[in-house]
From TrEMBL:
Single GO molecular function: helicase activity
Annotated gene: recC
One term under GO cellular component: exodeoxyribonuclease V complex
Cross-referenced HAMAP family: RecC
Protein name: Exodeoxyribonuclease V subunit gamma
C-alpha cells in the first residue's frame, strides 16, 4: 500500500457545496494539462451540470473524461487482464442465447434438472427466449450484488442448486466473470505509477453518485491504496443517521427483542430507538444502507460536513433544515406565513389537466419572481414518455405573444427517431395478417411517403381505393376482401379497356386515371415489401440469417433524407447478428428460431434505449425521475405522484435469489424512487411543486396520492400550522375538471389561470347561464310534451350529444364514409336470424 493515498469522502446536503470543494481541489492540484481528468458519474445530466457550473466558476473547464462506473471498471479490467478479459462472451445478450442453447438441448434430461422453468417453456421458442432473458439479467445482477455466491458457484460442483449448475454450463471455462476478476484484482500488487498509467490519471473523482453497489465500492477501495480517490456524496443529513429507525422498523425490532429476551414488561424506550426525523427515516432507506456500507470500508475515510448557517424562512426551507439537522417540531409547531407558496400540491382530474395546471403555475412563478428563468425550472415525472405529447400540446401554445422555451429528455429512441418507429412497425406486422388500417397507417408514415413518393393528396385517393375495393386484410392471399385481391382489382381496371371494365365491375376497378398509374405502382411496390416481410417471417432461420433479413429491410430506406445517426441506431442493434463477433458465434446458439424471438429481442433493445440529450439543453427541462438526478434547481416540479405509479413496485421472480435473501446495498426500484423523492425535496432551492390525479374525471370521486406524498402531507400537518387557517387547505389545491371553470377567473378564488382563450370561454359560458330565466314547475308543465320511443331512449344513452343536437336543433350527423374497415360486415334480416337460431337449437 502506498502512503498518503486514501479514499476521500466529502459529504454535503447541497450539491453546490460539493462542487465548490471539487473546484478548489482542481485549482490547487498539479496535473498534466495534456492528460484528461477522470470523473465518474452516473447520469449524463450530471456531467452537463458540472461542466456548465465549473465553466462559470473557473472560467474554463475542459479536458475532462466523464465516465459511468461500468465503463470505468470495464476499461480497468481490460488494461489489467488484457487478453484473458473477454467481456463480450459474458454480456447479457450473449448469456440469453447461451441459456437458450442449454435449455433446447437434451430436453428430457433438462426437464428433470430445470423443472422449475421447463413447466413454463414447454415447446415454445419465444417462451424459451423470455425465460432466458430473465435468467440472463439475474446472473448479471448476481455478479454485482452476489459476487461471493458466484465465486462459490465457480469453485463448487454441487448439483442440488439448479441455478448454479445452469450458470456453470453457460459460463465459458477460460473466461473469468466479474466475481473472479474482483478477487484476482485484490490479489495483485501495483505501484502508484502503474495504476496511474492504467487509469490515465493520478486521481479519481466520483461525483454526485447517491449509492454504489458493494462490488464497485470494493474496487474503488482497492484503488485508493495506490492513488487518491475522491468521492463527493450528497448526504441529506449532516448528523450521524445510519442507525435511525422508522416506526415500522421500531415495532419489528421491539417484537424481536421481546421474544428473545423473554422480559414481560419490556418497554420500547428500554431499547433506545431513535427516529430523529420521520421523513428522513421513511424516505432515506437506500441512503442509510449506503452510508452504513461506507463505515465498513477498510480505507481511511475523511468525512467533512458543515452546519447550514442560514435561518429557514419558508415551509420548504424549514423541512429541509429539519431533515439536515435531524429533528422535527411535532410538539412545538412552527408557524408558516399565509402567503407562503414554497411548497404546493395540485390535485387534478387527469394527465392533461396536470400539464395545464403546471403551465399556469410556471407562468405565475416567472411573473412574480424576475430572478427565476425557464432554465431554473425542472419538471420530472415517473416516466416522462406518458406526458411528452401533452407537454408539446400545451406548452407549444404562446402566452402574450411568446412561447415558453422547453426541452424534453429521457424519451425512448422510438419517440425521437422516425426510422426506428417505422422499423418497429414493420417487424410487428409479422405477428398477424396485415389489416387495412395497418396499410393506411403505414402509407401515412413520413418515411414511407418519402420512400415511395406518396403525397398528402395521394392519401385521400389511397383511402378511397381501400374502401371501394373492399380491402380488409392479408397482402398474400388472393381471396375475396383481401388487400391483395383489392390491388388486383385496381391493376385490372388500369390495364383493361373501358368497355371491359364496365362489363366486369366485380374484378375491375373503373376509376383509375392515367395520372394515378404512378401512385398505383408505388403502392404495389410497398405491398411487395410487406409481402416479403410476411413470407420471410413465417420461416425458421438462424440468428445470422435473421440478421441478413433485417439488414435487407433497412436498406430499402437508405435513400430517405434522414440523419446518419438515426440509421446507425438500427444498424448497431441488428449488427450483433452479422458482425465479425456476432451473437451466434459468441453464444454458440446455431439452431433455427422463429421470428417472434428476434422481434422480442429487437423491441427490447430499442425500447430500452433512452436518450438524455434534451437534459439541461434549453429552457424548462422535462425529464423522467431517474436516480442520480439530485441537481439543484430553483424550481422543481414533480408530476404523476399517483398511488399506483410512484414509487414503482419491485418485480419478484420466484427463483430470484436476491429478492428472496435481501442484503444491504441491493437494488430496489421502490427504495430508489423514494430516495429520489427525498433528493428532489432537498435539491429544490425556492419552490417545490407536486401534482397527482386526485379526482376521477367521470364521477369526481377522490383518488389517493402516492404514499410518499401522503407521508409528506402528514409530516407537514404534524409539524407546521398557519394562524386562523387549515394548513392542508393552503397546501393542497384541488383543481376543476375544466380549464375554463369560472373559479380560475374570480379575484377571491385561490385558483388562477393565464389562459386567455379559457377566459373567453368562461365568460361566454357564464353569460349563457345568467341569461336563462328561472322557470317554475307550473311553467314547465305547460310546455310541449314530446313522446319518445324505446329506440329513441336507447339512442340517447348511446350518444347523448348527438341525440340532443339532432332532436332539438335539427343537426344531422352524416355517416363518415372515410372509415377504413378491417373486417367485412355480415348482416342478416329477421327471417334469416330466425332460421339460423332454429337450426342451432335443432
Amino acid at each position: 500500500m502506498i502512503e498518503n493515498t486514501t479514499l476521500h469522502i466529502y459529504e454535503r446536503n447541497r450539491m453546490e457545496d460539493l462542487l465548490k470543494i471539487f473546484s478548489i481541489i482542481l485549482e490547487n492540484r498539479k496535473f498534466d494539462p495534456l492528460k484528461k481528468e477522470k470523473v465518474v458519474i452516473q447520469s449524463q445530466g450530471m456531467s452537463t451540470w458540472i461542466t456548465r457550473e465549473l465553466s462559470r466558476q473557473l472560467g474554463i473547464f475542459a479536458n475532462i473524461d466523464f465516465v459511468f462506473p461500468n465503463a470505468f471498471i470495464d476499461d480497468l479490467f481490460k488494461k489489467c487482464f488484457k487478453d484473458s478479459y473477454d467481456p463480450e462472451k459474458l454480456t447479457r445478450d450473449v448469456l440469453v442465447f447461451r441459456i437458450m442453447k442449454v435449455l433446447s438441448e437434451d430436453i428430457e434430461n433438462n426437464k428433470q434438472k430445470y423443472s422449475q422453468i421447463y413447466d413454463y417453456i414447454d415447446e415454445y421458442t419465444s417462451r424459451n427466449f423470455k425465460i432466458s432473458s430473465k435468467l440472463s439479467a439475474l446472473y448479471d445482477d448476481y455478479q454485482i450484488f452476489r459476487y461471493e455466491m458466484i465465486n462459490r458457484w465457480n469453485s463448487d460442483s454441487n448439483k442440488d442448486d439448479w441455478q448454479a449448475e445452469l450458470y456453470r454450463e453457460i459460463k465459458p471455462k477460460n473466461i473469468p466473470d466479474r466475481s473472479q476478476l474482483l478477487y484476482k484484482l485484490q490479489k495483485m500488487s501495483f505501484t502508484r505509477e502503474e495504476i496511474s498509467s492504467l487509469i490515465g490519471t493520478t486521481d479519481i473523482f466520483i461525483f454526485g453518485i447517491s449509492v454504489l453497489p458493494p462490488y464497485y465500492l470494493k474496487i474503488f477501495e482497492f484503488l485508493s491504496q495506490y492513488i487518491d480517490v475522491h468521492m463527493f456524496l450528497m448526504n441529506p443529513c449532516r448528523e450521524f443517521w445510519v442507525d435511525i429507525k422508522t416506526e415500522r422498523e421500531k415495532a419489528h425490532k421491539f417484537i424481536q427483542a421481546a421474544q428473545k429476551s423473554g422480559i414481560e414488561n419490556l418497554e420500547e424506550s428500554d431499547l433506545h430507538f431513535f427516529t430523529g426525523n420521520t421523513l428522513l427515516a421513511e424516505f432515506g432507506g437506500m441512503g442509510r444502507e449506503f452510508f452504513s456500507q461506507l463505515l465498513d470500508t477498510d480505507s481511511q475515510v475523511e468525512v467533512s460536513q458543515t452546519k447550514n448557517q442560514n435561518t429557514p424562512n419558508t415551509l420548504l426551507e424549514h423541512i429541509q433544515d429539519q431533515i439536515s439537522e435531524l429533528y422535527q417540531s411535532d410538539k412545538d409547531k412552527i408557524k408558516i406565513n399565509k402567503d407562503d407558496d414554497s411548497l404546493i400540491i395540485s390535485s387534478c382530474h387527469g394527465k392533461r389537466r396536470e400539464i395545464e395546471v403546471l403551465k399556469d403555475y410556471i407562468l405565475d412563478i416567472l411573473q412574480k419572481d424576475p430572478n427565476i428563468q425557464p432554465s431554473d425550472i425542472i419538471v420530472m415525472a415517473p416516466d416522462i414518455q406518458d406526458y411528452y405529447q401533452l407537454v408539446d400540446g400545451v406548452f407549444s401554445k404562446s402566452y402574450a405573444g411568446e412561447r415558453l422555451v422547453y426541452s424534453i429528455s429521457d424519451l425512448s429512441v422510438r419517440q425521437e427517431n422516425q426510422l426506428v418507429d417505422l422499423f418497429l412497425k414493420l417487424i410487428s406486422l409479422s405477428k398477424s395478417n396485415i389489416k387495412a388500417s395497418d396499410l393506411i397507417e403505414l402509407v401515412e408514415d413520413p418515411i414511407i411517403m418519402e420512400s415511395f413518393n406518396i403525397t398528402e393528396n395521394d392519401l385521400v385517393i389511397i383511402r378511397n381505393w381501400v374502401r371501394e375495393t373492399n380491402m380488409r386484410v392479408d397482402v398474400v392471399s388472393d381471396d375475396l376482401y383481401t388487400i391483395n385481391h383489392g390491388l388486383k382489382q385496381l391493376l385490372s381496371g388500369f390495364l383493361m379497356n373501358e368497355e371491359r371494365v364496365f362489363e366486369d365491375s366485380i374484378t375491375c376497378y373503373k376509376d383509375i386515371e392515367g395520372s394515378q398509374a404512378l401512385l398505383l405502382g408505388n403502392i404495389l411496390e410497398l405491398i411487395e415489401l410487406l409481402k416479403y416481410i410476411q413470407l420471410e417471417t413465417k420461416e425458421l432461420k438462424t440468428l445470422n440469417e435473421w440478421g441478413t433479413f433485417l439488414h435487407s429491410v433497412v436498406e430499402r430506406f437508405e435513400d430517405v433524407d434522414i440523419s446518419y445517426s438515426q440509421q446507425k441506431i438500427i444498424r448497431d442493434t441488428i449488427s450483433v447478428f452479422t458482425e465479425e463477433k456476432d451473437i451466434q458465434t459468441l453464444s454458440g446458439f446455431d439452431k433455427p428460431v422463429g421470428f417472434e424471438t428476434i422481434r422480442l429481442y429487437i423491441e427490447r433493445k430499442l425500447g430500452s434505449n433512452i436518450s438524455s440529450k434534451g437534459f439541461l439543453s434549453k429552457g424548462i427541462t422535462f425529464s423522467s425521475m431517474l436516480p442520480m438526478r439530485s441537481i439543484p434547481f430553483k424550481v422543481i416540479c414533480l408530476l404523476g405522484l399517483d398511488q399506483d405509479t410512484f414509487p414503482r413496485k419491485d418485480p419478484k421472480l420466484e427463483f430470484d435469489l436476491i429478492k428472496s435473501h435481501p442484503k444491504l446495498g441491493d437494488r430496489s426500484s421502490r427504495k430508489s424512487d423514494i430516495y429520489l423523492f427525498l433528493e428532489a425535496l432537498m435539491s429544490s432551492r425556492e419552490y417545490f411543486y407536486m401534482s397527482y390525479i386526485g379526482q376521477d374525471s367521470k364521477d369526481n370521486s377522490q383518488r389517493n396520492p402516492s404514499v410518499v406524498l401522503e407521508q409528506l402531507v402528514e409530516y407537514i400537518e404534524t409539524n407546521f400550522y398557519i394562524e386562523d387557517a387549515d394548513i392542508l387547505d393552503h397546501l393542497i389545491k384541488r383543481h376543476r375538471l375544466q380549464a375554463f371553470h369560472s373559479d380560475y377567473f374570480r379575484p377571491e378564488s385561490k385558483l388562477f389561470s393565464y389562459n386567455e382563450e379559457n377566459l373567453e370561454v368562461s365568460k361566454a359560458y357564464n353569460l349563457q347561464k345568467t341569461d336563462i330565466k328561472d322557470i317554475s314547475i307550473n311553467d314547465s308543465l305547460e310546455s310541449d310534451i314530446r313522446e319518445y320511443t324505446p329506440i329513441d331512449i336507447i339512442r340517447f344513452f348511446k350518444a347523448p350529444c348527438e341525440f340532443y343536437l339532432k332532436n332539438e336543433n335539427d343537426i344531422i350527423f352524416l355517416q363518415n364514409d372515410d372509415d377504413v374497415k378491417d373486417y367485412e360486415d355480415y348482416q342478416i334480416d329477421g327471417l334469416q336470424r330466425y332460421i339460423l337460431v332454429k337450426k342451432i337449437y335443432e
